[in-house]
Amino acid sequence: MKALILTFVISSLGLGERLEIEPAHTRNAVYTALLGEGFSADGATVRLPAPTVRDDQDADAQRAALREVAGSDRKLDELLRKSVAAPFILKVRDAKARGATLRVVDLWFVVHAEMTDVDPAKEARKAHGQEVGAGNMTTRTEFLDEAALRAAGIERPSAGTGNGPETWYARVHGRLLDRIAFVTTSQAVATRSKDSIVVASRTEPAFDKPGVSANAWQPAAGGEARPYRGGVSYAKISRLAIAPGALLVEMHGAFEEPDGWFQGAPILRSKFGVVAQDQIRRLRRKAEKRGNGHAGS
Predict the structure, then answer these.
(1) Phi then psi for 21, rounded to 5 degrees?
(2) Is 89 exposed, middle or buried (0-12, 13-18, 19+ CB in 10 A)?
(3) pTM of the full predicted structure?
(4) Confidence tier at 30 by pLDDT (50, 70, 90)
(5) Selection from 15, 80, 25, 18 nearest residue 50 by Cα
(6) CB distance 261 to 272 below 8 Å
């Protein structure tokens, strides 16, 4: 469930020291803001880690970086395996805030596909109106048109040219374990370099004001809607020199989980692995069909 996996630390990320972003991705304002500022809500701030793989790394550097994540060469080879059921790596940590927990999620997996087949904005538009479910949780996504953005006081987003940034806004209606319902609208920005694609998103504060389109949550059975801070995330898709024809997908994000949802218990957190496995296998099957000549599937 892409929208729920928010939506994924560097203990010392110096802007002049560690923030070495590829030139193509420096134009992604959301991405640079997330790496520099992290996510703040309810009196707490968490930072997202920098990507594991950079465009300028050779095969040896990539292997060293990914071995550290995987834990060993054997586990790394398993991660790279061309199989729908190949493993993924999921790490979760929490930060306590006032009346909420900030869940921070890091995810790595490999898909065997061509970079030219990946079009984040096109996939986002195709998701319009679709409902996706896993682990007794569902989300339905709406791609906001120009009229909806104008009503919120947001300028028309850029369409993107060449490797330039492309921006879109999506509203997600979610239902969690038949107990919690939420609505959030996020801004997403995608940039592309020769060897990678970055998609970064954050809940749009223009929709914080009360109303039917407000960023809010409420009990699924009904009741008063309450403001919801939402979350942030970025995904970087990198061409792998150590495995030609393979792409590394790493996602990092954080989101607010109010105590009113599950009283701080890790009920939702326990579902992350189920949701990740479901979505990763769907993505791999789709890539496999495309690779077998079924691009329209």
Answers:
(1) -100, 135
(2) middle
(3) 0.89
(4) very high
(5) 18
(6) no
Amino acid at 262: F
CA 185/CA 215 separation, integer angstroms: 7
Q: How far apart are CA 283 and CA 111, in angstroms?
A: 8
Going by the DSSP 8-state scheme, the letter that residue 211 receives in this structure is S
- Give me the mean pLDDT over the 157-180 stretch: 83
Neighbours of 15 (CB within 10 A): 10
**Tell me: the pLDDT tens digits for 238-270?**
999 999 999 999 999 999 999 999 998 999 999
- Given a cut of 60, is residue 273 above it in pLDDT? yes
For 23-291, CATH gives 3.30.530
| Contacts with 91 (C-beta within 8 Å, 6 or more apart), sequence order | 105, 106, 107
Beta strand extents in the chain (DSSP E only): 39-41, 44-46, 89-97, 100-112, 131-134, 137-143, 166-176, 180-192, 196-203, 216-219, 226-227, 231-239, 246-258
Give me the pLDDT at residue 158, please. 64
